[in-house]
Amino acid sequence: MPQVEWAKFVEQVRTGMSLASFPTDTVTALAARPDQGDRIYATKERPADKPLILMGATLDDLLPYVSGTDADIAIWRQMADRYWPGALTLVLPASDRVPVAMNPLQTGTIGIRVPNHVLARHVLAHTGPLASTSVNRSGQPALEDMGEIAAQFPELLLLSAGAIADLKTQLGDFDLTASGIPSTVIRWDGGQWTVLRQGGVKLAGSPAND
Fold this sequence. Notes:
Elements: E1 3-4, H1 6-14, E2 20-22, E3 29-32, H2 37-44, E4 53-55, H3 59-62, H4 70-83, E5 88-93, E6 109-113, H5 118-127, E7 130-134, H6 146-152, E8 158-159, H7 161-171, E9 184-189, E10 192-197
Parallel strand pairs: 1-8, 4-6, 5-9
Antiparallel strand pairs: 2-3, 3-7, 4-7, 5-6, 9-10
């Protein structure tokens, strides 16, 4: 597994040269530029009916990838302000900026999230939003141990130990092990929220009204 310094890590991910792995608050990410999402599907052997999540450093970074009225966006922003950064994925109507590589079946929606992990947000602030999922073969448990990830996915780009040490000096200490608990997923359906998966954030059946 290539372990590189910060500048090279950002350059290779931002330019689409490499798939990368880095910790988040939920599971360790397997990430790529959005138009390189097909490489994630191939690497994971992931079925086409499972869209990727788009992670960003802020909601404003992610808004160009969704489409809604001003009233809709105001409600989405309220939900984001309440739970982000955090383990909540919002499934929203997709704009034409979302590449087919992220959602091969073109369902017309996109899941977006801002992770509650200082390193993940620092990466995303420099690369721009990234297509992401957990690091594992499809149907297998998510991998968290770097040795296991290196053994199963030797092509993934990682930050070197020196880069991590430098970043901890800049950003403050952070965990390299994710919680292992996936995000809660809610979908905007005709003016209300539907819970698709309960995860790290506990929500009632109609979270917009709780």
